[in-house]
Known about the structure:
Blueprint (H helix, E strand, L loop, with lengths): L12 H14 L12 H8 L3 H13 L3 E4 L3 E4 L24 H11 L5 E2 L12 H15 L13 H12 L10 E4 L1 H13 L5 E6 L3 H10 L2 E8 L3 E2 L1 H10 L2 E6 L13 H13 L3 E5 L24 E6 L11 E4 L4 H12 L4 H13 L1 H27 L5 E2 L7 E5 L6 H10 L2 E2 L1 E2 L12 E5 L6 H13 L8
Parallel strand pairs: 3-14, 5-6, 5-8, 8-9, 9-10
Antiparallel strand pairs: 1-2, 4-11, 6-7, 10-11, 12-13, 13-16, 15-16
Helix pairs in contact: 1-3, 2-3, 5-12, 6-12, 7-8, 7-11, 13-15
Amino acid sequence: MSRIVNKQRATYLYQQVIDLIKDMQLHGTLSAGEKLPSLRNMAQKLSVSIPTVQQAYQELERQGVISAREKSGFYLNALDKACSQPRRTSVTKSPVEVNKQALIEQVFEGLHRPGVVPLGIANPVAASPTDKVLSRTMRKVMNLAGHKAINYGPSDGFGALKKQIINRYLDCALGVNSDELIITNGAQEALHIAIRCVTSPGDIVAIESPCYFGIVEMLESLGVKVIEIPLCPQEGMCVEDLERAFAQHDIKACIVSTAISNPLGSRMNDERRQQLVRVIESHGAVLIEDDVYGELAYENHDLKPAQYYSSTGNVITCSSFSKTAAPSYRIGWLIASKYAPKARRLKRAMSCSSSLMNQWTLSEFLNSGDYDKNLKVLRQRLALNKERMRALVQKHFPEGTRMTNPQGGCVLWLQLPTQFDVVELFHVALDNGISITPGAIFSATDKYRQCMRLSFGLVWSDEVEKAVARLGALCQQVRKGN
């Protein structure tokens, strides 16, 4: 066996049993149709409890890896056929103005429609909710701080929270000064401030393709032009493509998720991050790093942020607690580097300050250790939900569907065959009580009409499984030529 169950590892024991059986299947140690050891026998072999093995078998059955036969035991199913990654697109030939607001408004309306299964919203913390612990923590803050907690806070942020964030960056060998760290109303405001610090209307900004639609809409509102640089589903932005774009266009800034991208879930390794920073800074441009999913990588959490590799100060990092703690708190931040004075002025002009109560509560949440405890559970649940969702897509979606295998975060990116129109599917699915996010809003151009983003950042249930199966069936209604 190439894997063993190790009680000292951070991964849950039942998940290790799952990984072991899948590894044995992959390498032919177990063959399709072969009977698995009984619960008791497997528990003895691995020195774990029978309930641990039972939980692993139940999850493997849910994913379609094994099947239970009455009065006989569990048997290994045939290995699923490989699912190809979505194809990488080409670089945009020339900068374009953005015009996506109408469809984005329809998507947002659908996301919050009552009674809809929310497969369209990227809200990973919903898989391991923090409401109870945050409620206790906020009551503690109110008892300690009294009326001070409901006052206005400093425009650049609550000092205790800033110190907590700075200490977390020290863990990855990045020193951050308090003066260059500014607390914002979520990462969206941080990105808005960063873009305004380094661009003017009409300037050219390079973005990932596909790119989170909130950034696409923001750039539309700021009147800048964009050029799209395609992502590799596993390794992130192709730096060579970006370098060729610099040779042809006067690019002022690049917005990149070097950690976990949205919607592909790709991740750049340290070498590629260093190369990315070197190329951007050599052209006098600014890298705006969108790092909201950085702490939701399933493995290897010690990669350094892009700012670590900066030699000129032309990297601005934006992040938030929306994906890891509480989206409604709207607490984010930016490390503005040499642009900090202008960023502080913009923050003050835009919203004066962020909620002191929410900042104080999050500071206590981090200080108590509860944040990291929940983050550990959240990563594991998201990794498990990813496998569940991928298995359902393979089972229920049209033949030829391509799908990502994200390295973190909470979403899958699907590419259907060319005869399917996902914008039309979005409306059909919504009429059937299911929200999805059509791929067309993840581009400033007309790309990705056959693509969609599905979220597995939720509490898993039979309702979710039925919704994914139903969505796969609905695809036939938007097949061209029907």
